[in-house]
Amino acid sequence: MTAMSAPTAPQAHPDSPGQPEPQSSRRRRGAAVPYALLVPAVAILVLALGYPMLWQTWTSFLQFGLAQQFGKPPTFVGLTNYTRLFSDPQTWAVVGRSIAFCLVNAAITVVLGVLIALLMNAVGTVTRLVLQVAMLLAWAMPVIASMTVWIWVFDWRRGIVNWGLTQLGLDFTNHNWLEQPLSFYFVATVIVVWMSVPFVAFSVYAALTQISDEVMEAAALDGATPRQRFFAIIMPMIRPVLMIVTLLQVIWDLRVFAQIKMLQDAGAPTASTDLLGTYIYRLGVGSSDFGMASALSIFVLILTVALSFFYVVHLMKEDS
Fold first, then answer.
1. Looking at the domain assignment, is residue 9 inside a domain?
2. Is 31 within a domain?
3. 189: left (phi > 0), else alpha (psi -120 to 50), else beta?
């Protein structure tokens, strides 16, 4: 009688349900998850921004005016729109004013935002809440509503600014703040900075709350002055936030439109007060030259990337 052979154990298959998944496979799958999560956001951006950008780029190479709005086929003109645009001295005057306005407003906004954030970090709870509510109201107010108030404030007949300065002994009776370009941009700067400071202040204050009190107390015990603590401890710690808010302010102030357009409608000369946003509007809607307006819009996109290139490279270095 032959002895029965012992049954052999089944060979484990690496992909069988009962076996643990290899570590390399889990690592590859985990590395792909963030990219998969980005797919919906990227798809929305491509659909929402890709088509308008492609259409505008193509239109910049066409003669697209009022007749094309009523069905006449556009004519391909190549780089003619760009040649006409940048051979016009008015274009370069607008570009220069826009860059200067953008950089000055962004610098003033960031400095004031940092100072207000430091103030909120230093005062008591009640004062801080009052400041936060006031800035939140200024930030949340619709542009049209706030511009209506600001135009009344600087009105040359009934404006409270002229009245207040006159009461102080200065002759500002019927002074038109919007008539001269310099005073026009002063008013525009006041308005744009007033609307933008709350965002910077809230962002920087949030960064300040992440700085450890123990670190600041240790620096004070070591004899560091407030100035030394600010530049040696606070600034390095909030630098990433400052870089981001500065980049956003440069982009927003370069594309400012509603404030300038409403001030122009209140009685300012357009030729000497146009910025890039209002100049594109005048070319497109005002003159029905949508090809030229599209060409200038593409230039603004390139200019925005050029102005923000340094900040983007620095942010990438900080992240790495």
1. no
2. no
3. alpha
Least confident of 80-94, 223-237, 275-289: 223-237
Query: What is the band of 68 on the pLDDT scale with cuts at 50, 70, 90?
Result: confident
Given a cut of 60, is residue 14 above it in pLDDT? Answer: no
Angle between helices 235-254 and 181-208 (to 10 degrees): 140
Query: Of the ranges 13-27, 125-139, 207-221, which one carries the lowest mean pLDDT score?
Result: 13-27
Q: Are 238 and 148 in contact (CB under 8 A)?
A: no
Strand partners, 76: 62
Asked if residues 301 and 307 have their Cβ atoms less than 8 Å apart, the reply is no
Decide if 22 is inside a domain: no
Total domain count for the chain? 1
pLDDT over threshold 90, residue 276 = yes
> What single-letter DSSP state applies at residue 175?
-
- How does DSSP assign 249-275, residue by residue? HHHHHHT--HHHHHHHHTT--STTT--
Assign residue 101 the CATH number of its domain. Answer: 1.10.3720.10
**pLDDT-derived band of residue 3, with 50, 70 and 90 as boundaries?**
very low
Long-range contacts of 50-55 (CB under 8 A, 24+ apart): 53/301
Q: What is the β-pairing status of strands 75-76 and 62-63?
A: antiparallel
Per the structure, the complete domain to which residue 164 belongs is given by 88-288
Q: C-alpha distances in angstroms, 276 versus 211, 265, 272, 296, 299? A: 40, 16, 12, 8, 10
Q: What's the mean pLDDT when you consider all of the chain?
A: 85
Instruction: Give the pLDDT mean for 78-93.
Output: 91
Q: How much of the chain is in helix, strand and coil states, percent to nearest 5? A: 70, 0, 25
Residue 146 located in a structural domain: yes
Chain Cα centroid distance, residue 30 = 33
Bridge partners (DSSP) of residue 62 are: 76
